[in-house]
Each structure stands twice: as C-alpha cells, then as structure tokens.
C-alpha cells in the first residue's frame, strides 16, 4: 500500500498564508518607513550639529574681529608708533580697562624686548614667542594660545604689527586675554543631555571643553582625538567608539586656525529612531501572535468536522452503517461533503443487502 506523502496540514497551510498576507506588507512598510525615518533623522542630526558649530563659530569670530579692530586702530596712533613706553603705557592701560577680559596689553620692539606695558610691571623679553616671530616674518596678524608669563594660566594672545606712516615695521602691539568668553561659549553649548563642544588650538591643545572632567591639565594635547583623523567629519557627523559608547562627532576649522568639535552620544541622538524600531518589532510580534491565534481557531473550525467525517467514512468502509452524520445539517461545503458521504453509505448498504440476498438464493 502506498504511504501518504508528508506535507502541510490545513492548519499549517492556513497559518503560512496568514503570515505571508500580514507580515510581508507590514515588514515592507516598516522597512520603507524606517529607512526614510533614519534618513530624515540623519539629516536632522547633521543640521543640528552644523547649526551648533555655526553658532559657536559666529560668536568666536565676532569676538576675535572686535579685538583685531581695536588693536589696528590703536596701533595707528602716533604715540604708539613712537615706540616710547611713556607715551604708550596710558593707551595700553586704557585698552586693558576697556576690554575687561584683557588682563595685559603691551608692545614689543623689533629686538623682541618688551617696550610698553599696561600693568606697570618690569619689562621682559618676548622674542622667543611664536606670535612675535610670525609678525617679524611679515604676518599681518598673529594668534597664540599659551600659558601666560603673567598669570601662568592659558591665555589668548593677539598681536598686530605697528607700522610707521610710510609702512615700515616699528614694533608689535599685543593684547593678552583670558579665554573666559570663548570658554563660556563652548561650555554653555548643549546638545540634549550628552552633547558638548571642544575647542582646540592649531597644535590641537584644548582651549575649552564642554566636559571639564575630561581635561586633566591646562592646554592638554588632544591630537589623538578620533575626530581629527576623520576627514569626513568636516562634512557631516561621523560615528566613532569612545570606550563603551558610540559617539557622533563633527568638526569645523575656524579662521583663527582653531578646531571646533561638536559631539553627542549616538544612542541619545537616535533615541526616537530606536524607539520607533522597538515599537515596530513589538507590533510584528503581536501580529504573529494574533495570526497564530486566528489560524488555530479557524483551523480548528475547519479540521474538526473534516476529521469527524473522515472517521465516519472509515466506519462506513468497515461496514458500520448505523452512524449518525450531524454535519449534513450544515449549509456550507462541509455539509455538502457530509451529504455525499451519507449517500455513499446508503449506496454501500443497499449494495451489501443485494449481495446478501443473492447469496441466500
């Protein structure tokens, strides 16, 4: 006797059809919408980080330009071009008093020696300073972030050439400033709960950091910061690993030669997307559970009467004709099948009766 081939039963087929009908559109919709949502979120995060960098840059550049204009105007005064301390000192004192973040203004001769000062302290030699060498070599302006000889703290030095009326270099005017305003602009920058900004000088020494606990020493070297080695971080936020965290970073080169870095925790930046994806997964799981429940219920409704009719047909085939077939009262296909089986049973019984009569004659 030929064995029946293994295959899917009605419940399994029904379950498979329902899963395909419900999950394929749902997963497709999730994929398409999720891809678009992530693209929109990428654009939003990039826009936010770039706007933050723009805001900080605008403030720093405006602050720097104000100081440059002040030095250039003062550098043209005759008393300043005289390179005589007694004429320069009152002007230098006035400059320092006007700009409260400036704690020292001074002039330096072509030999590197200090000429005038705003603080009445003894003059000193500045010829080894990088900003002095830059001006002596012809630079129109020089900037440097360094540890001040006066305060011992990180300070911003802005230097401009002092030129005589015919353009000859007479000396250098310098304003030494606390980085309070610049640091405040960086320290006050917040992106959500985890975002912050970092400002580095041209040699990648930290000027200001939004997370002060990450800076251990004044002008700490940040040359190993991952953002500095990522060229693409200048175009859009880029992801990198920091210990056990994923971070997003964006960098911007400022006109002063400084580097501005804006960072945010990746998980926080994409929190809404992660929530949406989690909700979509829950929806799919709930859908699968509902499909199983519906398939089980509907499958039972289909298979129970069929199994009952199968058992009845088996009894009829074994010669038991006194069976009741309640499914004949149904008005659907199951009822039609039950009626057919009933008629088949009657036909078999009549055939058996005729055979018995013939054998009895």
From TrEMBL:
Keyword set includes Protein biosynthesis: no
Domain of life: Bacteria
Matching PROSITE patterns: HAMP
Primary localisation category: membrane
CDD domains: HAMP, PDC1_DGC_like, PDC2_MCP_like
Enzyme class: transferase
EC number(s) stated in the UniProt entry for this protein: 2.7.13.3
Compartments reported by the entry: Cell membrane
PANTHER family given in the database record: METHYL-ACCEPTING CHEMOTAXIS PROTEIN (PTHR45528:SF10), SENSOR HISTIDINE KINASE CPXA (PTHR45528)
Protein name, entry field: histidine kinase
Originating organism: Undibacterium danionis
């Amino acid at each position: 006797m030929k064995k029946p081939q293994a295959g899917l039963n009605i419940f399994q087929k029904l379950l498979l059809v329902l899963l395909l009908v419900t999950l394929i559109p749902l997963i497709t919709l999730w994929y398409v919408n999720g891809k678009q949502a992530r693209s929109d979120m990428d654009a939003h995060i990039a826009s936010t980080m770039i706007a933050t960098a723009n805001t900080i840059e605008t403030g720093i550049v405006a602050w720097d330009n104000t100081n440059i204009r002040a030095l250039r105007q003062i550098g043209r005064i005759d008393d300043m071009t005289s390179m005589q301390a007694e004429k320069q000192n009152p002007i230098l004192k006035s400059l320092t008093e006007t700009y409260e973040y400036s704690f020292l203004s001074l002039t330096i001769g072509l030999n590197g020696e200090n000429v005038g000062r705003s603080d009445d302290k003894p003059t000193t030699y500045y010829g080894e300073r990088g900003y002095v060498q830059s001006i002596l070599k012809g630079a129109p302006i020089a900037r440097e972030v360094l540890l001040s000889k006066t305060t011992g703290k990180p300070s911003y030095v802005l230097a401009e050439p002092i030129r005589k009326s015919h353009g000859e270099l007479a000396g250098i005017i310098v304003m030494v400033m606390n980085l309070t305003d610049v640091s405040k602009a960086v320290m006050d920058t917040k992106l959500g709960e985890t975002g912050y900004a970092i400002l580095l000088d041209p040699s990648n020494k930290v000027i200001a950091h939004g997370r002060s606990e990450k800076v251990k020493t004044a002008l700490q070297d940040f040359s190993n910061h991952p953002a500095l080695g990522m060229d693409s971080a200048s175009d859009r936020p880029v992801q990198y690993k920091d210990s056990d965290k994923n971070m997003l970073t964006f960098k911007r080169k400022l006109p002063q030669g400084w580097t501005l870095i804006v960072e945010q925790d990746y998980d926080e930046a994409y929190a809404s997307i992660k929530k949406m994806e989690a909700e979509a997964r829950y929806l799919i799981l709930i859908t699968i559970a509902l499909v199983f429940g519906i398939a089980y219920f509907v499958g039972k409704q289909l298979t129970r009467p069929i199994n009952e009719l199968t058992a009845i047909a088996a009894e009829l085939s074994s010669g038991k004709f006194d069976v009741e077939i309640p499914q004949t009262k149904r008005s659907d296909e199951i009822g039609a099948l039950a009626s057919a089986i009933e008629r088949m049973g009657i036909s078999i019984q009549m055939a058996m009766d005729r055979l018995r009569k013939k054998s009895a004659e």
